[in-house]
Amino acid sequence: MADTSDFRNGFxxxxxxxxxxxxxFQHVKPGKGGAFVxxxxxxxxxxxxxxxxxxxxxxxxxxxxxxxxxxxLYEDDLGLHFMNTETxxxxxxxxxxxxxxxxxxxxxxxxxxxxxxxxxPLTTEIPLSVExxxxxxxPGLKGDTATGATKPATLESGVVVNVPLFVNEGDVIRxxxxxxxxxxxxx
Length: 187
Hints:
Strand order of the largest sheet: 1-6-2-3-4-5
Largest sheet: 6 strands, antiparallel
Radius of gyration: 21 Å
Structural class: mainly beta
Helix content: under 10%
CATH class of the largest domain: Mainly Beta
Strand content: over 45%
Oligomer: single chain
Shape: flat
């Protein structure tokens, strides 16, 4: 058991029967009344974010979760298959349970968040940016580069993102996985 003085970003607690991670917290001491802690909690399984207020000193049950690095191997009818990079054990997850699936290529790394006591996979996290090969892009027109125009490009993982006109097939680009946007061309 822990109390509100132990709160920090990323701290995991059991609240309302689920495991929640603290995204933000703020200790508040009003002029009148008792102190409290305003929190923004993210459900580890569903990704839903809610606001909640705890009284200062309130006891909460902690949840021990572990982040384990896995390598994406392949996808088939059973789901996506990953290999733990430390123990070489293989894990399968259904496609709907993997967030950011469209940015993962074979051999790419992903973190699987696991409940330490039950060894149950809770969620996945992909890196904030990934480097992917452009497999299909229409050629850009000369003279249009000054306008900041973009064109759609298909990447090796199958996702389509808008890229500047100077990006061609065969280029490797860095993509922001949260927004699905082009960042830069990798040389």
